[in-house]
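Hi W.,

Here's what went into the run:
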Amino acid sequence: QTVVTQEPSLTVSPGGTVTLTCGSSTGGVSRGSFANWFQQKPGQAPRPLIYSTVNRHSWTPSRISGSLLGDKAVLTLSGVQPEDEAEYYCLLYFGDTFVFGPGTKLTVL
Amino acid sequence: EVLLVQSGAEVKMPGESLKISCGASGYRFTSYWIAWVRQVPGKGLEWMGSIYPGDSDTRYSPSFRGRVTISAAKSSSAASLQWSALKASDTAYYYCARMDYTSSWKNVDYLGQGTLVTVSS
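Here's what came out:
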């Protein structure tokens, strides 16, 4: 059973920078994991932010970026704003299927 | 404009069957995968499986194989998620999502608004 790992929660101050990570129990995350990142606010559907590790959607602010760091996928939010407070999920590709991480609750305080 | 519009909320009893739908518009339906995602209220997202309407290639997450059926109708540009016998543990929000899937990238870009399925006696 493949397990994807994320920090359960993180706190960041407005204007600060925060890094969220996404790992895999079966080994390192690579470009071939095609990490996707989603933001979800209460009562809303998930909103895609990043696809295939580093690519922003047209609606994704440039202050949000995706990358690889070591053996994990990383989502970086710079110049954090109050509206960034949300749950963030990563999605990794494993052959014929995909697995979501458990989510990171980001608090802006 | 790409739109995925899902069918409305359902309330069912355990053991009943159900089919929910996801209508696609604004793009070529047969050229993108449609995936289904489950979210139990207050919990995280779970990938259920996906279908390529172009050739009906269907792939299930091991956790959901045999428990649901994913299908697509090219004539109506709609994908469906079906249960033959619901359980209380199927109570959740279900989202459909469009995915562009190639050897070079995997891009989940649009999601439906979600369908709440409540299973209760």
